[in-house]
Amino acid sequence: MLKVGVLGAGHLGKIHLRLLNQSEKYNLVGFYDPFKENADKVAAEFGYQPFDTIEDLINAVDVVDIVTPTLSHFDCAKKAIEAGKHVFLEKPITTTVEEAEELIALTKKYNVYGQVGHVERFNPAFLAIQSKIENPMFIETHRLAEFNPRGTDVPVVLDLMIHDLDAILSVVKSPVKHVSASGVSILSESPDIANARVEFENGCVANITSSRISMKNMRKTRFFQRDAYISVDYLEKTCEVVKMKEAPEVPGDFDLIFQNAEGVKKQIYYDNPEIHQNNAILDELETFHDAIINKTTPIVTLEDGTAALRLAHQIIDAFDK
């Protein structure tokens, strides 16, 4: 079993601690939190071992799970990597693209593995339809959340939209050609609502909307491609695949047939895959373990996290244009 330690024992850090403690693949050694009062409370309530310094924790483990505020990701990860430890970084990978690129270089220098916590890649609904997505040409995404002060220190693009940017980049295998965007600050100093239009060199267009001041939560994406309409609801963990094929000579009583102006007939049918429910956070942590042990590429690499961060900054930069 790989020994793992967690940096940061806030809301998400406590979730990671609980799941790592339950995991049969990791040995949870303990955690470090810079706020002693919080560290003592977590230790007393859950029994996890607190460490006095980041360095003490890093030296005691094989894998460092970094669940700290984004501003500290780079410094924490750099210390861990230079100590020869593998790193799991919550999203976004770092504050700047330059920091992310430096971490990539350091993992190669010290021969360690890294993974970024883009958890929607492990959402059971996305896993179920991922293989059905082939060369999408239009993507529509809405990620709306009720207001929560946690996370408002960064624009909604880095707080929420980046989930969808990573998922989109994982299925659109083409460089970004052009980005246009608008963002509005309502309650925070940084934009709370954002919309971006991302055009790819292969002709695909993604229209992405995020808000953290909505009346209800929504996390939906629709993919349109030549032969199919595919929708995924990350929140409800459901998906739908609607496809077309040549209409049969003799349609059945319940076949849904459409005919265009040229007289071409198509049959509409559902091809919904089976969804296997899972714990996405546990899966992302345990697949990272497997990548380290088997010496294979992590599912969400540091390069993937950097690509999502780069696009996020392109969108933020487009706000002022």
Short description:
With 321 residues, the protein is an alpha/beta fold. It has 2 domains: 2-112, 3-Layer(aba) Sandwich (Rossmann fold), CATH 3.40.50; 121-276 and 310-318, 2-Layer Sandwich (Dihydrodipicolinate Reductase, domain 2).
Poorly predicted parts = none
What's the shape?
Answer: globular
Count of helix runs? 9
CATH superfamily of the largest domain: Dihydrodipicolinate Reductase, domain 2
Query: What's the mean pLDDT score?
Result: 94
Query: Cα-atom Rg, whole angstroms?
Result: 22 Å
Architecture of the largest domain in CATH? 2-Layer Sandwich
Q: What is the distance, rounded to the nearest whole angstrom, between the alpha carbons of the first and last residues?
A: 51 Å
CATH fold-level name of the largest domain:
Dihydrodipicolinate Reductase, domain 2
Structural class comes to alpha/beta
| Strand line-up across the major sheet | 7-8-9-6-10-11-12-14-13
The major beta sheet can be summarized as: 9 strands, mixed
Query: How many E strands?
Result: 14
Pfam family, one: GFO_IDH_MocA
Domain GFO/IDH/MocA-like oxidoreductase: 156-217
Domain Gfo/Idh/MocA-like oxidoreductase N-terminal: 2-118
Protein name: Gfo/Idh/MocA family oxidoreductase
What does this structure look like?
A hairpin with a 4-residue loop joins strand 11 (228-233) and strand 12. This protein is of the alpha/beta class and 321 residues long. The strands form 2 sheets. Strands 7-8-9-6-10-11-12-14-13 form a 9-stranded mixed β-sheet. Helix 4 packs parallel to helix 5 and helix 5 packs antiparallel against helix 9 (302-318). It has helices at 11-22, 36-46, 54-59, 73-82, 97-110, 124-129, 156-171, 280-294, 302-318, and strands at 2-7, 26-32, 63-66, 86-90, 114-117, 138-144, 176-184, 193-200, 205-211, 218-225, 228-233, 238-246, 256-259, 265-270. The mean pLDDT is 94. Helix content is 33%, strand content 28%. It is built from 9 helices and 14 strands. The chain folds into 2 domains: 2-112, Rossmann fold (3-Layer(aba) Sandwich); 121-276 and 310-318, Dihydrodipicolinate Reductase, domain 2 (2-Layer Sandwich). This is Gfo/Idh/MocA family oxidoreductase. GO terms for molecular function: nucleotide binding. It comes from Myroides pelagicus.
